[in-house]
Amino acid sequence: MTAATDTLLDRFGRWLAARLQQESSGYEPYTPSDPETLHRVLQPGDVLLVEGNQKVSAAIKYLTQSTWSHSCLYVGDALPTPEDGSERPRLVEVNLGQGCVAVPLSKYRTYNTRICRARGLTPEDRREVVEFMISRLGLRYDMKNIFDMLRYFLPTPPVPVRWRRRMIAFGSGDPTRAICSSLIAEAFGRIRYPILPRITPAPGRAAAQSRYMRQEILHIRHHSLYTPRDFDLSPYFQVVKPTLEYGFDYKKLRWGDIAKPPVAPPASEPNAPEEAAALEA
Predict the structure, then answer these.
(1) What is the pTM of this model?
(2) If you write DSSP's letter for every residue of 131-152 in order, what string do you get?
(3) CB atoms within 10 A of CB 36
(4) SS3 for 70?
(5) Which of 59, 104, 125, 280 registers the highest number of CB atoms within 10 A of its CB?
(6) For 171-192, how does the pLDDT look when each residue is reduced to its tens digit (9 = 90+)?
(7) What is the phi-psi region of residue 93: left when phi exceeds 0, alpha when psi lies from -120 to 50, beta otherwise?
(8) C-alpha angle 49/55/61, rounded to 5°?
(9) Rounded distance, CA 37 to CA 13, Å?
């Protein structure tokens, strides 16, 4: 009886997930991501933040007061090329309705993205983070609590600011399921790498001024409450911009409102002995 009920909930959850993943109209990326450029710049263990254009993305961006609604981890060449010859998957992410899957870089060709890189990551820890994410491939998305998804049908849920972060976390607590930022935060937690850690100030230093702020700092430490923007806000993750990695010279930019300077025709060379003699004279 329990198995039948779970199956029914999962089916209903998948239907809700499909509705929430419908794309919103009017999305125009300012800086679309070139997969080739991302491939040159990204390193295994990098976190790629994505500004999604789905209905659930609007709610997540509102709740977190951030541009970023999704996050995934770059695993490099750790996964094999598909037998059908399609593009090699280099990102591991958790999608609503699908769970933990591997996808190619070209999936986010038309999205605004941001690269967040953990500074000072040792090769061993980098490998452990990648292996942790790969080992979670196949995990289902957390859909046991249907009310967790129903609230995302409101693009701007009418809740106080202090409750918005808690609305991101799904409530089932089932270890066989996962959500995007939580799984990445758990991977970095395995190697004890800080994202937004609890900091105990030295005597005489500034501390959180309100009781709510102190409670929020303590509460955010659990990986289930991490959101995509936390990797952007973290003082330990570096924001990497591909256009600046290989040299950038603003003097070489071509502006549409400035006419190109006329190109002078090449000087004609003397083509006869007489002309050469005349030039020498």
Answers:
(1) 0.73
(2) HHHHHTTTPEE--S-HHHHHGG
(3) 10
(4) strand
(5) 59
(6) 444 544 556 888 999 999 999 8
(7) beta
(8) 45
(9) 36
